[in-house]
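Lay summary. Proteins are chains of building blocks that fold into shapes, and those shapes determine what they do. In this project we predict the shape from the chain. Here is one chain we studied, written as its sequence of building blocks.
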Amino acid sequence: MSSNPEGGLSKRKQNRLTLKTALAAATLAFASPAPANAQATQENHTTVRSIDTEGQDKDLHRTLNAARQVIQREKEESQVHRRLFGDREFLRQIDKSIADAENSLSSKEYLRGLEKIEQYGGDIRNFIVSTSPEIIKDGQKIDGLLTRIPKELRDNVLLLSPDLKDDPGYSYARPELSDTARILAENHIRLGIGEIHEILDFKNKSPSFVSDFTSIIASSHGKIHPRLLMGSVRGGVLTAEDVSNEKIRSGLSKLVEGGLQLYQVVPDQSDESARQDMLRKLGDPSFIEAYLGLSRLGYRPDHRTFRDMPLETVMSPNFLKNAQLLRQAGAVDSSPENLVTPLKLDGLEVITKTIPPNKLYDGMLLYFIKKIGDDPEAWTAVRNFYMRYPNDDVAQKSIQALDLHHLKSESFLAILNTILQTNKARDPFGNRFDAERAFIKQETGKDRFEITRSLENYLGVTQDPSIDPLVAKILEREEGIAYLSPVLRMNELHDESAVRRLEVIRPFNARTIFEVMRRAGADAYLSTFRFLYNGNGFTGREAQNSFLVKVRTEHGTLSTFFQTLRPDHKTFGTFLELLSQNGILDAFLSDVGSADEQQSMLREFLFNASSGISNTQALTLSDLLNTTKAEPIRAFVFGELRTIQGKQQLSQKDKSPKVAGLLIADYFQGKQNVPEWALPSVQEYRKFFPEIRELSEDKVFRKEGEIKRNVQVHFFYDDRAPGKPESTWDGHASFRNFITSLGGSVTWDKDGTIQRITVNQGYDVKDEGDYVVIRQADSRTKREVVMYAIKPDRTDETVAKVGGQLLKEKQAPMATLRGHSFHAGKMIGVLTPDVVMVNLGSCGGAKNISDVLAKAPEAQVMATRGVGTMLVNDVVIPSINRDLLRNGNVNWGSFSVQMTVEMDRRGGLAKERWPSYQPPDKNKTAHLIAALKALEK
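And here is the predicted shape, written in a compact code that computers can read:
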């Protein structure tokens, strides 16, 4: 016999199997049964046998099984959190709590403690992971802590982990506490005691809060969880006064009854303007009725539709009529930004009536309607085309592929009409492309590629005031290619004379050459960039073609040039970084003039101590401090940083004083002689710069049976284009070199479609259509590297879709980009938080590090500060994999030494460009970005 929770005596069976306990156990059994293949740990199997053989009662065995089911469910939920959230510290804490609870299942005291919690009406699901096992094992302490709660209160609340603390953070004797708990329980609402304290606090602001709160829950018929509603009020998205507003309560209940979840209507956090917009919608019965009409028409409205759909759109007289028209055309699950225009548009039926049901072209129609808005001239052209081609699917899709400026050019539409009637392509974008090419030829006398592959031609056409505006609009899409063309031409002339290389930029003024340098960035060879800037030391007559000479000829000084140009901080900072990467930063500063003139320019165009420091400016300043040999400039920067440190924060969000301290610590980190004034910053901020020594086995391998497997995704992009010779297909060339580095070969047809891939006997290759799977194993270490390499003959859309799926489904910890730097953003966009190593083999990969860490916060990044090359990449990648297979990790210090020796042996461009590669341990940019992010938390 044992003492029961109320101090009396009863049989153990009666003690432990109250109705509440039985219901809780049944809920566990039906809500989350353990999977059939779930395996407990060996010690837990031993525990089960021990309990059985020692003849323990069935309740203890039942508690064990229930606890194991809870732990299994927590494991499954933690995997969901792992995929959705990047907060690794939070996940580590969860994993540890789950492991501690699982290990405690071998303790009978722990199981009896769980039973004790149930005796007091607690649900063990609320305690297993959130409460220390040591507390649960102490039955006497549980008795003492829970008997302090009045029984009339305990019977009407959820017991939670804080109730097993000596100081739960709230009182059990507050006036009205027990009465409020009873009222809530009578309305089938059970909350934690701390939450009921909050309800009483809100009642002080709005006397009817308790009844209003229960009214919302009741009117939703259980679809609004009271704890979620409390979270919205606690977070201030809904105030106590909002809950007491009858119209808002009614609107919220109707929306939830109509199929929306509470979190879709009321976000976790919201700015005040968005909150007021939400309240206006919730309080407008007409809006609620019209919005719910979407559901009756067969749409599945979600939180984006509710939050982003303007009130005036829903209140438009065309709203439901157009919604039905779009529904009939197949637009059911469309995003709100594409619905806003068509839902209030007059005359929509003219467009939709010619489209067979469910024949929307990947949502193109809705995007098209959004693009052209309510321009009457454009809609007239659209209606004419739809009436001309009422049953022609390809023609209709070709019309949808147009932009507003296409539709307002009669000349272009006439050409497109001819193409649709004669040599129409199956691809609507192909029809648009053919029409654009013919239109440009008609208007300029030049071929489209003749224009965009020559900056001189491009500027001549786009800056001609007499040219049709549509020509400039079409060519704008390839502006980057045009500005890159002089750089690529100068690169091609790498082995030619300075005279020939400088002749390439003779037609351009200083401002244009500045744009060429800024846009080309790291795609320019070292010598090319220097030729662009100052002639690379050449003193002949052709050196007058360089940026510096033209600045002096056209503007007098660099200071005057930048005063005229007035670049923003980001543009000027990027230019300084490019000068640094090409080893001429100090030359530029000297060209500016005296130390005072240099400082004046930096203060005006880079950063000013009176206005703080952005993260982008911080990266440039770090590069400047670590690169310049001009001590006066370094002293100036440090002086500005110390000034910022001494200032008060402009606002709570202003981190400038801390960023300044971080930059000082970053520069002096690891240095022997640290000046006294810098010591406090180094000591305070050194914690933000943890040393990176290796890519560890536990991060990049996972155990699968007897094998430890490392998974990598390699992104190759298609650089083909109509008219481009095969020698310029960089994606194909990189892919071929990659396969060659594995001892294999690649063949493709005249159009560039991959035909056959082979590798040597040390690898296994399998063609999966959009990608190939290459496996390399070491039987001695029982490790395997699996590389998923996406073929370079696929579209960008396919690479994004396939690459994103591979990273998620295979949970790949490593990703590599091959090819031009302008592809970097495409790969980075699909990175997942699970990625722990990113190799940016493209030119100037260092400039993409911030974006990488935003997607994969714990990633180690290898990147280039200058020009990347397959001559280096195809040595680096196999070498990393060799270390992974042999050692299970990569020691970056040893790796860098090995690569330096190997590149020296190879010589040529490999030796020249290896120094621009930054392994993770030397990647100061990545370290600083990570530190800046940590500073924001």
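What the prediction tells us: The mean pLDDT is 82.
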